[in-house]
Amino acid sequence: MARRYDTVTYIKLFPNTEGKGKAQYSNGNWKPYDAEQKTYADITLRDGQRHQVSLFPNEDGTISIRISRVTEYEGEDSIADGISQPAMKPIGNAISTKYAAPQPKAEDDDPDIPF
């Protein structure tokens, strides 16, 4: 079972330097941004759908939060899955094949048994 992580939205938080009792980081100007449509829009997080929330500290002292939808699917992860240029897909497939985990031998693959 493989997993795909589709970004739902990003949130950037800025450090608060004034006042006690405030959150260390906040953003009072944040607008919902749909990362899939690449525009400002309403965002829906559904019950029963898994999500991943990731926090990244930035060099400028801010914090970025990414919310991704986790989708499980049948298949194998491949380097070629992330390649959007059609001419480069065969190269990605070749690399995936070269570095793929070795497949276990079947019981009848024993070369010592003469037939």
Biggest sheet features: 4 strands, antiparallel
How many helices does DSSP assign? 1
Number of beta strands: 6
Structural class: mainly beta
Order of helices and strands: EEEEEEH
Question: Helical residue percent?
Answer: under 10%
**Rg computed from alpha carbons, rounded to a whole number of angstroms:** 23 Å
Q: What is the rounded distance between the termini?
A: 37 Å
Spatially, the strands of the biggest sheet line up as 2-1-6-5
Share of residues in strands: 25-35%
The average pLDDT value, as a whole number, equals: 80
Uncertain segments are none
General form: elongated
Description:
The chain is mainly beta and 115 residues long. The protein has a domain at 2-73. The protein is 9% helix and 33% strand. It contains one helix and six strands; from the N terminus they run E-E-E-E-E-E-H. The protein has a four-stranded antiparallel β-sheet with strand order 2-1-6-5, with no helix packed on it. Strands 3-4 form a two-stranded antiparallel sheet. The longest helix is centred in the last third of the chain and has 10 residues, at 89-98. The model has no long low-confidence stretch (mean pLDDT 80).
